[in-house]
Amino acid sequence: EQEPNLMSWEFAGGEIFKTMKGHWKLEDQAGKCKATYFVEATFGMFMPGPITKALLDVNLPNMISAYHKRIKTIYGK
Q1: What radius of gyration, in Å, describes the C-alpha atoms of the chain?
Q2: What are φ and ψ of residue 16, in 5° steps?
Q3: Chain-centre distance of CA 74, in angstroms?
Q4: Range of the domain at 52
Q5: Which long-range contacts (CB under 8 A, 24 or more apart) does 34-40 make?
Q6: Same domain, yes or no, for 53 and 37?
Q7: Looking at the structure, do residues 18 and 35 belong to the same domain, yes or no?
Q8: Are residues 35 and 64 in the same domain?
Q9: What pLDDT score does 77 carry?
Q10: Which residues contact 23 (CB under 8 A, 6 or more apart)?
Q11: Pair 67, 36 in one domain
Q12: b/e map of 6-30 (b: 16 or more CB within 10 Å)?
């Protein structure tokens, strides 16, 4: 049984990642919505440390920022 405020996903397949799964958890906080994102992944090939770091330090925050901007565009908040 999954929590009603939790949306889980699992990567179906591809070349770069061996496994990847995660979830969004949505929480009401004084009339605002707090969205927490979790991801866990393993690479299907050798991935040098600097590339892994770039994926985590640059791409993931950019994805979350794009999500936040999209929500503001849709809901105006």
Answers
A1: 15
A2: -80, -45
A3: 19
A4: 46-77
A5: 35/67, 37/64
A6: no
A7: yes
A8: no
A9: 67
A10: 6, 7, 8, 9, 37, 38
A11: no
A12: eeeeeeeeeeeeeebeebeeeeeee
Amino acid at 42: T
Q: Write out pLDDT tens, residues 28-76.
A: 999 888 989 898 988 888 889 898 888 778 888 888 889 889 988 998 8
Residue 64 corresponds to which tokens in the numbers above?
Answer: 């979350």
- Tokens read off for 70: 């999209």
How would DSSP label each residue in the chain? Answer: ---TTEEEEE----SSEEEEEEEEEEEEETTEEEEEEEEEEEESS---HHHHHHIIIIIHHHHHHHHHHHHHHHH--
Which of left, alpha, beta for 53 (phi over 0: left; psi -120 to 50: alpha)? alpha
In one letter, which amino acid is 54? A
Tell me, yes or no, if the pTM score tops 0.70. Answer: no
Q: What is the residue whose two structure tokens read 């993931």?
A: 60
